[in-house]
Amino acid sequence: MGASKTEHFTDEQNEMANLMKAIGHPARVAIIAFLLKTDACICGDIVNELPLSQPTVSQHLRELKSAGIIQGTVEGTAICYCLNPTTIEKIQTYIQTIHQSLQQKKGASCC
């Protein structure tokens, strides 16, 4: 199934796929973890935390921001990033729904 087949899925399914795709890189997971332990940060702070170049970190930040997972505000010549609680809540709800469904089916064999 090609990427052009997204019209066959619901808006919610497409949105969740885009969110998961944005999270689906270890550098982006590391950025999210860093933002979780700080209230907000400047891009340079993130570069100092990761073994990646500044342009590479900026690219990952752009992907996370494009997906709505993070948001940023301009402070002088720098951008201060933080997690977008609305988007994080959507992801949490989706994962919780999967978990609850699995808990209800606990003990049932799938094979």
What keywords describe this structure?
111 residues, alpha+beta, Arc Repressor Mutant, subunit A, three-stranded antiparallel sheet, 5 helices, 13% strand
Q: In words, what does this structure look like?
A:
- There is one protein chain.
- The chain is an alpha+beta fold and 111 residues long.
- The chain has one domain: Arc Repressor Mutant, subunit A, CATH 1.10.10.
- Helices cover 59% and strands 13% of the residues.
- Strands 1-3-2 form a three-stranded antiparallel β-sheet.
- Helix 3 crosses helix 4.
- The model has no long low-confidence stretch (mean pLDDT 90).
CATH superfamily: Winged helix-like DNA-binding domain superfamily/Winged helix DNA-binding domain
First CA to last CA: what distance?
A: 25 Å
Strand arrangement, major sheet: 1-3-2
Mean pLDDT across every amino acid position: 90
| SS content category | alpha+beta
Please provide a brief summary of the model:
By secondary structure, this protein is of the alpha+beta class. It has helices spanning 11-23, 26-37, 43-49, 54-66, 85-104; strands spanning 41-42, 70-75, 78-83. It is elongated and about 55 Å long.
Please write out the topology.
Blueprint: H1 11-23, H2 26-37, E1 41-42, H3 43-49, H4 54-66, E2 70-75, E3 78-83, H5 85-104
Antiparallel strand pairs: 1-3, 2-3
